[in-house]
Structure formats: structure tokens, C-alpha cells
Amino acid sequence: MQRTHPTLHIALRLSTALSLSVALLTAQAETTTQTLVIVADPWCPFNCQQDSTQQGFMIDIAREALALSGITIDYQITNWARAKLMVQNGEADGIVGMARDQNNENHYRFPSTPLGNSQVCFYRKAGSKWTFTGIASLDSIRFGWINDYGFNSPEGMDDWIKAHRHTKQVLPVSGDNTHARLFKLMLSDRIDTFAEDRNVIAYELMRSDLSREIQVAGCAKSIDQVYLAFHKHAPHSAVWADALDAGVTQLKENGRQAEILAAYGLTLSDWIGSDQ
């Protein structure tokens, strides 16, 4: 039987312990120096164009929150379907603007802290008396619809669009600059209303100087919280989520979060509500 010299045995154990310590320190360092690829489609002011000086308040908050743990962001724009696949397949580390539900929790790791909320509202031209009071109130109007856009709320909205999309009541808009095109259709009296997130339209109307010409005509009652969600099976995804939670808390406490939001014409209550 081959024997190991006691001195050699001790040396081997010390070498093994040292290797394990180095590996652990390396793993910890990787979580605090890593650059995360974050993807989404444009949805300003939540997340805007990647070459813009203002990339969106969710991106700005996430970048500064994660930087407090030494984590940087590489923000990239793509279409929504592609963004989801990239994160699920591990080609990207996170996706911005994801609502949290059971199906999405099966595919992504969510932090505890949402980075925004989304409420669908309906809009009308100034002077119009039409008001959204439920799905039935859509039956007498012409609706501008971003092609393939889906609505979690109000309940029944997707079914209504499916039933009317090939009629004169639904005018689809596709391609680039969809919001500007909806505004133009409304101001030229080709549509009576359209629906979109209230913060997105508030930002686009402010940017286009049309806040007086186009007004809210009613909103869905439900509000969806939206998150920066991470690749569920990434080795450090739990660390990223915890770092984001801790960083957002610090930004809120030191007032920096309010400063970021103000740059987009928003307040803390606009951001996520007074209870967060």
C-alpha cells in the first residue's frame, strides 16, 4: 500500500484549503465587478433608447443602485420577444419592464423591489366628451392600436381587439414612432382613442408639447408593478437581486431616487406609490 508522508499530507491539505479560499474570494469578486447585459424594447420613460442621454428612469435607478455593489450595466435595445428569449436562454442577464406573475416567475428571478408601476389609460382629443367606462364604451368609437400590443388590463380588452381588429373600429399602427403616429391620427380625427401606459404617454406628450391637445379619458383600475428581472438560473442572480434591492433602498433614503425621477417629470408617488 502506498503511503503519504505526514508532512506532505499536511502540505496537501493546506494547499487544498488555500485553493478553496481563493475560489470563494474569486466568486465573490465576480459578483461585485461583473457587467450585466440588460435588454428591453423602448418604453420611455421606463427605459428609452440606449444612445440617449436619458436612458429611462428604470435604467438610471438600476444602474446607480447596482453600482453601489460594484456591478455595472450594459443596456441594449431589442424587440420584446427577442429580449425575453435572450434572458431565458442566458444570452443576457436581465430584462427591464417585466410584470411579476406566476408564469414569469417560472422564467425569471425577481428582486423584492419593483422599479415602476404600469397603469393603462385611454386618451381623447381635447374637447371630446368620450370617457372610458368599461369595454362596452369602446363599441361606438374608433380605436388606435399598436400592432400586436396586448393588455393585461382592463379585463376583456384583448378579446375586444381580437373581435374588432379587422373592422373600421380598430386602426393598427406599426413600425417606429408609434406614439407620435397615434397622436397625429387623433389630432386629425382619424381615431377617437388609444390606450397605453399613463407614464409613457405623459412623457411622450410632454416631449411633443401636446399635453393640452390630448387628455386622459379614463384608466383601467388595476396597476401592474414592473421589475428588472434576472436570468433565473444564472449562478449569481440571487446576489444581483439582493444588490438591486439594497441599492434602491439607499437611493430612496439619500434622495437620489427622487432626483432621477424629477428628470423625467415624475415624483415618488408616480414611481411606485407611497407604500414602497
Strand and helix map with partners:
Elements: H1 6-33, E1 35-40, H2 57-67, E2 72-77, H3 80-88, E3 94-99, H4 102-105, E4 108-109, E5 116-118, E6 120-125, E7 143-146, H5 157-164, E8 170-173, H6 178-187, E9 193-197, H7 198-208, E10 214-219, E11 224-231, H8 237-253, H9 256-262, H10 268-271
Parallel strand pairs: 1-2, 1-3, 7-8, 7-9
Antiparallel strand pairs: 3-11, 4-11, 5-11, 6-9, 6-10
CATH class of the largest domain: Alpha Beta
CATH superfamily of the largest domain: Periplasmic binding protein-like II
CATH fold call of the largest domain: D-Maltodextrin-Binding Protein, domain 2
- Tally of helical segments: 10
SS strand fraction? 15-25%
Question: In angstroms, what is the radius of gyration?
Answer: 24 Å
